């Protein structure tokens, strides 16, 4: 099963009320088999910054490790200058490959997105993307590619918040 929460370009494919994750919640510890990728970009190289994106990412990290019980070694936090196309794809492939059968993979992207040139796919914009169309398409990451990588894992369910 693949759930996708999408807020790119004000389009929502799946809407659900967001849990308050900035305060500790009672531990559930039901995520022992889960893994996660959290990508946040507060500080883009050449594009307007997103204030507090990293604070939001750390809230997700705390919720996943303290409330859901994920092992910190299975939660990959990529922030700012490390959120390049290559690092995002490498980490996504690693997490998908090492996913546990019966578990979940959480995929959280807090940053800019855009619509692809074909108008169908969405592009996740890495930290080193420049404000040109050429850079957007060469340095951005196709959402379809991310979904394809995640679907290749052994996990029972994938939850993506983009």
Largest sheet: 5 strands, parallel
Major sheet strand order: 1-8-4-2-3
Q: Mean pLDDT score, rounded?
A: 88
Topology pattern, helix = H, strand = E = EEHEHEEEHEHE
Q: Can you count the beta strands?
A: 8
Percent strand equals: 15-25%
For the termini, the CA-CA separation is: 17 Å
Main structural class? alpha/beta
Shape: globular
Count every helix, treating DSSP H or I runs of 4 or more residues as helices: 4
**Which residues sit in consecutive blocks of at least 5 with pLDDT less than 50?**
6-15
Helix content: 25-40%
Q: Radius of gyration over alpha carbons? A: 15 Å
Describe this structure in words.
Helices cover 27% and strands 22% of the residues. The chain is of the alpha/beta class and 162 residues long. A five-stranded parallel β-sheet has the order 1-8-4-2-3, sandwiched between helices. A three-stranded antiparallel β-sheet has the order 5-6-7.
Chain-wise SSE layout:
Layout (H helix, E strand, L loop, with lengths): L1 E4 L29 E6 L12 H15 L7 E5 L5 H13 L6 E7 L2 E3 L6 E3 L8 H7 L1 E2 H9 L5 E5 L1
Parallel strand pairs: 1-8, 2-3, 2-4, 4-8
Antiparallel strand pairs: 5-6, 6-7
Helix pairs in contact: 2-4
């Amino acid at each position: 099963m693949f759930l996708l929460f999408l807020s790119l370009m004000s389009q929502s494919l799946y809407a659900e009320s967001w849990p308050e994750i900035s305060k500790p919640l009672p531990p559930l510890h039901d995520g022992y088999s889960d893994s996660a990728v959290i990508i946040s970009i507060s500080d883009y190289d050449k594009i307007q910054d997103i204030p507090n994106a990293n604070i939001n990412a750390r809230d997700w990290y705390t919720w996943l490790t303290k409330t859901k019980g994920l092992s910190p070694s299975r939660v990959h936090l990529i922030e700012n200058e490390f959120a390049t196309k290559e690092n995002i794809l490498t980490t996504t492939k690693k997490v998908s490959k090492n996913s546990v059968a019966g578990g979940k993979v959480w995929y959280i992207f807090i940053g800019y997105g855009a619509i692809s040139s074909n108008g169908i796919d969405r592009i996740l914009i890495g930290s080193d993307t420049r404000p040109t169309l050429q850079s957007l398409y060469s340095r951005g990451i196709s959402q379809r590619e991310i979904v394809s990588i995640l679907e290749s894992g052994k996990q029972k369910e994938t939850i993506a918040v983009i």
